[in-house]
Amino acid sequence: MRHKVTGRQFGRPTGQRKALFRNLVTDFLRNGHIKTTIDKAKEIRPIAEKMVTYGKKGTLNDRRLAASFITDPKVVKKIFDEIGPKYKDRPGGYTRISRIGTRAGDAAEMAIIELVS
User: Fold this and answer.
1) Could you give the residue ranges of the DSSP H alpha helices within the chain?
2) Three-class SS of residue 112?
3) For residues 71 and 25, what is the distance between their CA atoms, to the nearest angstrom?
4) Which of 3, 16, 21, 59 has a CA between 20 and 30 Å from the CA of residue 76?
């Protein structure tokens, strides 16, 4: 039974799932938006918002925590130099998920996750 077990498995082992989330969050923060499935967007939203919060606080420990998850050092620099200061006065809710219909190949529900301006 899966009582009180949160998170989606996406039919992948734990390591592959974590790598998927790391890559999705890195690409999302690099570009400001990505197009993915609804479920993947909902899973990466709290992770991405945590990274933006690290960028807002800007301490050395926060930079190290972000660098341990984000796969590209340029994206880590962008979080702390551009994205974090942009949301300095916002108390949360840095992302928006918009549904865009179904994918042609397998009819998966698609969404765009983007940083709120």
Assistant:
1) 14-31, 38-57, 60-69, 73-78, 84-86
2) strand
3) 9
4) 16
With a CB cutoff of 8 Å and minimum separation 6, the contacts of 117 are none
How confident is the model over 57-85, as pLDDT tens digits? 999 999 999 999 999 999 999 999 999 99
CATH no. for residue 43? 3.90.1030.10
* Amino acid of residue 75: V
What residue numbers bound the domain in which 48 lies? 33-115
List, as own/partner pairs, every contact residues 75-79 make where C-beta atoms lie below 8 angstroms and the sequence separation is at least 24, other chains included. 75/26, 75/29, 75/30, 78/29, 78/30, 79/29, 79/51, 79/52, 79/54, 79/55
